[in-house]
């Protein structure tokens, strides 16, 4: 009864279920990696949305890179242009942009700015 599922027998995971679980686990890890890397900016708020499912069949999705949308509020962005803010984010996430992340939509705000979420 321990809640585990066997690969054999009637109630087990089929190959398709196993593949889905394996595809979802790396995405969770990527979101956590993004959160960890972005912590260097000391965010007051950080939202990470995995939009990879919307891009199935896209060339970037085929190579394994995910599509993410982030909204980050940090004092680090105060007085900086949008380009400078994006540069700070890209510097923070570093090499994830060459492997795990194919596309990153960024909304970077200072704490005193209104939130203009899409």
Structure description:
The chain is an alpha+beta fold. The chain has helices at residues 15-38, 59-62, 82-93, and strands at residues 45-50, 66-73, 101-109. The chain has one domain (15-109): GMP Synthetase, Chain A, domain 3, CATH 3.30.300. The chain is built from three helices and three strands. It starts with 14 loop residues before the first helix and ends in a 9-residue tail after the last strand.
Element layout with pairings:
Layout: H1 15-38, E1 45-50, H2 59-62, E2 66-73, H3 82-93, E3 101-109
Parallel strand pairs: 2-3
Antiparallel strand pairs: 1-2
Keywords:
GMP Synthetase, Chain A, domain 3, about 120 residues, about 35% helix, disordered N terminus, alpha+beta, 3-stranded mixed beta sheet
Helical segment count: 3
Q: Percent helix among the residues?
A: 25-40%
CATH class: Alpha Beta
CATH hierarchy: architecture: 2-Layer Sandwich
Instruction: Calculate Rg over CA atoms.
Output: 18 Å
Largest sheet: 3 strands, mixed
Count of all domains: 1
Short summary:
The chain is an alpha+beta fold and 118 residues long. The protein is 34% helix and 19% strand. The chain has helices at 15-38, 59-62, 82-93, and strands at residues 45-50, 66-73, 101-109.
């Amino acid at each position: 009864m321990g809640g585990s599922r066997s690969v054999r027998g009637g109630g087990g995971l089929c190959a398709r279920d196993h593949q889905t679980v394996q595809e979802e686990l790396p995405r969770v890890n990527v979101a956590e990696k993004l959160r960890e890397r972005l912590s260097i900016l000391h965010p007051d708020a950080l939202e990470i949305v995995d939009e990879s499912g919307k891009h199935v069949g896209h060339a970037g999705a085929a190579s394994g890179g995910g599509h993410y949308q982030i909204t980050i509020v940090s004092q680090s962005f105060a007085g900086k242009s949008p380009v400078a803010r994006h540069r700070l984010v890209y510097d923070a996430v570093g090499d994830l942009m060459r492997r795990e992340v194919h596309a990153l939509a960024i909304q970077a705000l200072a704490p005193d700015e209104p939130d203009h979420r899409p």
